[in-house]
């Protein structure tokens, strides 16, 4: 392999390591983001439960007010009984009293159902708030983990970047520029080995004459299919 290509292969190894660490760092927030989505969902559910609780508590107050008013009305109607003079008046008054009692019995049933729902909602809200507190605790711990791992990765990248600068200085500017151009457009891989006439990067055959020229190691060639810089991978045959 030509010395310049050997340096580029080394440079590519460094670049791939940097790329790997950058991808690793970019993926760090994934779990945190998932926790954040869970938190938002739980907070929204808690808000919904609180809204329902507020609505039903208001309904409870309204029914209790109705119940109290109707009880007052019932008491007034019952006080009229001794003063009724005709059967017709008595029947009408008794009907009114029975209707009030029937309506109040229905209100009592409604109040019992509402009280049960209020108790259930309060318990759900209590559980949801505990989940939210735990979720926030996990997010805080995850944020700390991300910061610590991110700092470690940054330190590794800094060392590799320094190595890259040193290696890059050993490559002539025009070749380095070509390498960087190809690397940026070929997924970080700018240099590829050719094994038995096949480019190991794109798995395409290269022309036989090009392969023969490649074996001579006199010039730097590119793959006709993927345009990467290529070199012959020689296998010792025993």
Helix-strand blueprint:
Blueprint: H1 3-27, H2 29-80, H3 87-168, H4 173-185, E1 191-195, E2 198-199, H5 208-216, E3 221-222, E4 229-232
3D structure, described in words:
This protein is mostly helical. The chain has 5 helices and 4 strands. It has a 4-stranded mixed beta sheet. Helix 1 (3-27) runs antiparallel to helix 3 and helix 2 runs antiparallel to helix 3. The mean pLDDT is 94.
List keywords for this structure.
about 240 residues, mainly alpha, Helix Hairpins, 2 domains, four-stranded mixed β-sheet, 5 helices, about 5% strand, rod-shaped
Summarize the structure.
The protein has helices at 3-27, 29-80, 87-168, 173-185, 208-216, and strands at 191-195, 198-199, 221-222, 229-232. The protein has 238 residues and is mainly alpha-helical. The longest helix is centred in the middle third of the chain and has 82 residues, at 87-168.
Low-confidence segments, ≥5 residues, pLDDT <50?
A: none
Shape: rod-shaped
* Rounded mean pLDDT score: 94
Element-by-element helix/strand order = HHHHEEHEE
Query: Briefly, what CATH class of the largest domain?
Result: Mainly Alpha
- What order do the strands of the largest sheet run in, or round the barrel if closed? 2-1-4-3
Terminus-to-terminus distance = 20 Å
Helix content: over 70%
Secondary-structure-derived class = mainly alpha
Which fold does the CATH topology of the largest domain refer to?
Helix Hairpins
> Tally the helices: what do you get?
5
- Indicate the proportion of strand residues: 5-15%
CATH second-level architecture of the largest domain: Orthogonal Bundle
Integer count of domains: 2
Q: Number of DSSP strands?
A: 4
